[in-house]
């Protein structure tokens, strides 16, 4: 049976990591629109991942194979800001504000009550003394001489500060009644919202969205590799750190690791921040710190299968650092590679050696003196860091703004500044190259890191202190079974 090659223009865009935080409350997922193509006189619907428009709402979704064995992924979800416009979401935010105000009032009441109770306890013995003297005086009035009367008067004077405390207790009692009424009103509003939303289980919906994400990723992997034809508008995830830096998730396929790593700066840095999820990274919370045994150079780091690969400062040594064991597993010199700003990208920053990963594995992009400063690509063995194969692209590295690998092809930008575009592509499978003209919006005008993540099929960039994502458009080549 023949296996014909079917070429289609399939747009692959995924926002799984960014939309993960939305699924924690009112879940959403990357939306999918259809692209129709024809083959052999029949019309086939191939679904492509696109960022949904604000007008789109929830629609039927599925992930399956049709009768011919072709992969079909169909998901349409609202854009992220749709959730913010949901009136129920607005009601919930207002409720949260009220709950927060009530909590603060309760906290103030608790502190004040504790303070006043301590004061009452301290004056308890004094009250017993006064009570005893009053009983004696009432039973035997003659025993209350002028001296005894003055002592009793002094004791009563000492008890006068209790009056404002008791007044405060009365005011607090009124506040408690008011808080009780507010809590009752909150309960009524929550019941109304529950009735409006019906008995739908949002936790169940969240689990369905997570399952759908997994199926979507699986379906995307079946689509295979393709040629880059477009880059989306930038999606700013966070603004943090200095002008230069790098951030990433694990590039290994497959992987269920949702951690995010951030490395600020390009010069002698050793501190790596590890966030539990993308949501935590966006909020700057729930992170741990790794202190590397050797400082790094540049921003060309990559996380692959739970380990960080980076260039050791003032050397052409590549280090493999394992996060869970917090230890260096292997380090190896990249023979002949320039370092210490000998052959950096156009922006400098000790970016001589750029490590990256794609669908085909681990790569190093660098240059050597014998190569006259032109970009060299080497495929690395992840365990030993041994060079498996090397290509000379002929493109001068100092003329490149940044570069990244997709499906064994190196894509090079012509600048790190505003107006940059993807200008050059080198295909390692054919050892050939071509000049391209793929524009993209450099929103913050200074890119110091640009890497492709094959697991999510997005570009990660560090742009002037902003952490930014780009979706990519690939021209797909898909094998399908013949009739």
From TrEMBL:
Key words, A-Z: Coiled coil, Disulfide bond, Glycoprotein, Secreted, Signal, Synapse
Keyword hit for RNA-binding: no
One Pfam short name: OLF
GO terms classed as biological process: signal transduction
GO CC, alphabetical: extracellular space; synapse
Span of domain Olfactomedin-like: 224-476
Compartment(s): Secreted; Synapse
Disulphide bridges, residue numbers: 225-407
Entries under PROSITE patterns matching the protein: OLF (PS51132)
Keyword Glycoprotein attached: yes
InterPro entries (alphabetical): Noelin_dom, Olfac-like_dom, Olfactomedin-like_domain
PANTHER family: NOELIN-2, OLFACTOMEDIN-RELATED
The name this protein goes by in its record: Noelin-2a isoform X2
Organism encoding this protein: Xyrichtys novacula (Pearly razorfish)
Lineage start: Eukaryota, Metazoa, Chordata, Craniata, Vertebrata
């Amino acid at each position: 049976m023949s296996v014909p090659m079917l070429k289609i223009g399939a747009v692959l865009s995924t926002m799984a990591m960014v939309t993960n935080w939305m699924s924690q409350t009112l879940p959403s997922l990357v939306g999918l629109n259809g692209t129709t193509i024809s083959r052999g006189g029949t019309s086939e619907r191939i679904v492509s991942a696109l960022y949904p428009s604000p007008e789109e709402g929830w629609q039927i979704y599925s992930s399956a194979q049709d009768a011919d064995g072709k992969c079909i992924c169909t998901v349409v979800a609202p854009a992220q800001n749709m959730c913010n416009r949901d009136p129920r979401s607005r009601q919930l935010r207002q409720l949260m504000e009220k709950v927060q105000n009530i909590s603060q009032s309760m906290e103030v009441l608790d502190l004040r009550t504790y303070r006043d109770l301590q004061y009452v306890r301290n004056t308890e013995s004094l009250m017993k003394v006064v009570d005893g003297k009053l009983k004696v005086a009432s039973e035997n009035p003659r025993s209350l001489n002028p001296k005894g009367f003055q002592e009793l008067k002094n004791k009563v004077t000492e008890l006068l500060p209790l009056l404002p405390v008791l007044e405060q207790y009365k005011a607090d009692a009124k506040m408690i009644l008011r808080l009780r009424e507010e809590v009752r009103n909150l309960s009524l509003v929550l019941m109304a919202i529950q009735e409006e939303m019906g008995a739908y289980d949002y936790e169940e919906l969240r689990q369905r969205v997570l399952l759908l994400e997994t199926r979507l990723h699986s379906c995307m992997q079946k689509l295979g590799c393709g040629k880059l034809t477009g880059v989306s508008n930038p999606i700013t995830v966070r603004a943090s750190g200095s002008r230069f830096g790098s951030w990433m998730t694990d590039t290994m396929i497959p992987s269920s690791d949702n951690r995010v790593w951030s490395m600020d700066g390009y010069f002698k840095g050793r501190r790596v921040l590890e966030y539990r999820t993308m949501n935590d990274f966006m909020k700057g919370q729930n992170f741990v710190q790794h202190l590397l045994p050797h400082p790094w150079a540049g921003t060309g780091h990559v996380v692959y299968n739970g380990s960080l690969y980076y260039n050791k400062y003032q050397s052409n040594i590549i280090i493999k650092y394992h996060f869970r064991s917090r230890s260096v597993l292997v380090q190896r010199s990249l023979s002949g590679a320039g370092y210490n700003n000998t052959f950096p990208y156009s922006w400098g920053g000790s970016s001589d050696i750029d490590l990256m990963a794609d669908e085909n594995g681990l790569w190093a992009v660098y240059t050597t003196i014998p190569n006259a400063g032109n970009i060299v690509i080497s495929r690395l063995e992840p365990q030993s860091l041994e060079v498996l194969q090397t290509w000379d692209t002929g493109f001068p590295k100092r003329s490149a703004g940044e570069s990244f690998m997709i499906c064994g092809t190196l894509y090079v930008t012509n600048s790190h500044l505003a107006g940059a575009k993807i200008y050059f592509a080198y295909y390692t499978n054919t050892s050939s190259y071509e000049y391209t003209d793929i524009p993209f919006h450099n929103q913050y005008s200074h890119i110091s890191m640009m890497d492709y993540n094959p697991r999510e099929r997005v570009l990660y960039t560090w742009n002037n202190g902003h952490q930014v994502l780009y979706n990519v458009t690939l021209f797909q080549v898909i094998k399908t079974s013949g009739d």
